[in-house]
Amino acid sequence: MKSSCSAFLRLFTFSTVALTSAAALNAFAQVTTLDVVTIHAAVPDASPNHPGLFTIRREGDTNYTLSVFYHVGGSASNGVDYAQIPSNVAIPAGSRVANISIQPKTNSLSKDDKTVELQLVPSPLECPAPPCGYDIGSPSNAVVVIHFSTTNAPPVVHIVTPTNGETFFADVVCPPCVTNTPPCEAPCYLAAPGITICADAQDSDGYVNTVEFFANGVSLGIRTNCLPCANPINPFCLIWSNVPPGEYVLTAKATDNGGASAISDPVTVKIAPHTNAPPVVQIISPTNGMVFIAPVNIEVDVTASDADDNVVRVDFFAGDHFIGGIVGTNSSPYSIVWSNALPGLYSLRARALDDRGAVGFSEPVRIAITGTNLPPPTNLPPIVTITAPDPIAAEGTNSWRWHTNSTVSAFDAMHLYGGTNTATFLFRRSDPTNSALTVNFEIGGSASNGVDYAAIPNSVVIPAGERFARLAIIPIDDAIPEGPETVVLHLTPDTNTPPPYIVGWPSRAGAVIVDNDSPPPGTTLLCNGAFHLRVPASVGFNYRLECSPDLIHWVTVCTNTVSEPGVFYTEPDTQEFPTRFYRVTPLANQTQ
Question: 198 and 87 in one domain?
């Protein structure tokens, strides 16, 4: 007779274990899913200064601690060639992984490479169901190689970006100068905004610990690896910011965990000044001299193109009045409808902006809009504008007294001696120029006409045949110490019918008078709210002065050539522009 134990069967499946009566086998079988465990070498190379690392991972339920068992093998001796490790590891509750560190011993007699191999084995515990049972997945074994050699091979490193011979472009960079936060002495400069340098670094017998980057032998910064970790760095990258123009030799120095280092082959790059050509803009309709009868809606058509960028915005103006804009298209021509235009004489102009901030203006187009009972003008008058190419004047002889051991900068030398220094306003008109033209203006600013400077009238005459007239501001030395004072001239329309000229843009300009006991002001907000800009520059420097409300969109204020050391500009409209930024862009040549 068979043993009574035959009344019970032990039922095995791939992933389930249950014990039940043979008579009730179908009714009481229980299915239990076990965790699946795998192993891999997270850090497969070890040395006395660099431990290796095995990682055991489970997939399944993580609500309990799971003990995983393995066989320790390989050519290295456990506890002799490396620190003793047990034959099992616990994966904590709530976690999916457990690490086993292989720390080679520094006193090992071995000189050759040796291996540590871990092979997962089934749980030897009597209860195979959770929390002590598991299934073995793939991979089920992994190997760490221990390098006992005393020779530390250096890493291998090379720069992958930028490439040898690559050229980058520098733009004019001006630190923010906010008009309502005086003083602000922030000179503009040329620089490339940011160049990414990346180096690939490998080490055959350890890992790369750091990579240091150099430009012409000067350190730019160090990137440090995170090993041992799941995602070690490679390539190593660094952003090189505000790079001035010039040629640079880039190198990267990699250092491994054992202290050995190597330097990459050099990569030469060039930083060149970037000339951003402004858009070319032209009004094609209406044409110069056209006459309209009110009430009228006028379609204004403009062509705009850019040689090295895309046109992203076109704005339309009638005099200083904004009449519309088009954003987000690069399709010429650009058209708007000026609705319900009122009777008057107008100077139409268009302004185009490219995607790197350069701005171009069209030539003005003069039109007339007459009332229904007024005859149209036969010839439209010229457009008149005003600028201050020399906005600094100083009282007296401008001869300061100082001790013989005092020093004066070249920038201020012009203001210390050499005769009376006057400021100059320039009035400009377009065609026609066949007759003399009287231009009217209002006089403002903190300086008093006839008291702080020689009295000037409220008008200036541009002679027949001439496009320009200059008006000098001659300061009066009143022997009273005082701060900088301003002179602001604002063009006004003529009241005659028909008017002899049209007020264009810019229609206002400012100058500054300084006391002979004081140097010219720096970049600052003046006492009457005007803003004064001062940027160091050499005589003969050709430049374009631009302004922006946001350091992104720039508008040309004026172009000029430096006649006295420095770029000077006085902005009388600070209340209209509470926050404004300025920059000076060099020009290849300059015509007035």
Answer: no
**Strand partners for 43:** 53
Tokens 């400069």 identify what position?
Answer: 189
Strand-strand pairing, 218-224 and 261-263: unpaired
Can you give the pTM of this predicted structure? 0.44
Domain boundary residue, one of 380, 401, 418: 380
Kindly state whether residues 85 and 207 are assigned to the same domain. no
Asked if the structure places residue 241 within a domain, the reply is yes
Cα torsion angle, 35, 36, 38, 42, sign: negative
Domain boundaries, position 83? 35-146
Amino acid letter, 380: L
Same domain, 65 and 19: no
Q: State the Cα–Cα distance between residues 473 and 456, nearest whole angstrom.
A: 8
Q: How many Cβ atoms from other residues are within 10 Å of residue 24's Cβ?
A: 9
Asked whether residue 151 is assigned to any structural domain, the reply reads no
Same domain, 416 and 542: yes
pLDDT in tens, the chain (592 residues): 433 333 333 333 333 344 344 444 444 445 568 899 999 998 888 888 788 899 999 998 888 999 999 999 999 999 999 999 999 999 999 888 999 999 998 776 667 789 999 999 998 877 766 777 899 999 999 999 988 776 778 899 999 999 998 888 877 666 665 544 444 455 566 778 789 999 999 988 778 889 999 999 899 999 998 766 656 778 899 999 889 888 899 999 999 887 888 999 999 999 887 666 788 899 999 988 788 888 889 999 999 988 777 888 999 998 778 899 998 766 788 999 999 988 878 889 898 888 877 778 888 888 888 776 555 666 778 888 898 888 888 876 443 333 333 333 333 333 333 345 888 999 999 878 889 999 999 998 888 999 989 999 999 999 999 999 999 999 988 777 777 888 999 998 888 877 888 887 778 888 888 876 666 777 777 666 677 788 888 888 888 888 765 565 566 777 778 877 788 888 776 655 556 678 888 876 544 4
- Beta bridge partners, 351, equal 315, 361
Number of domains in the chain: 5
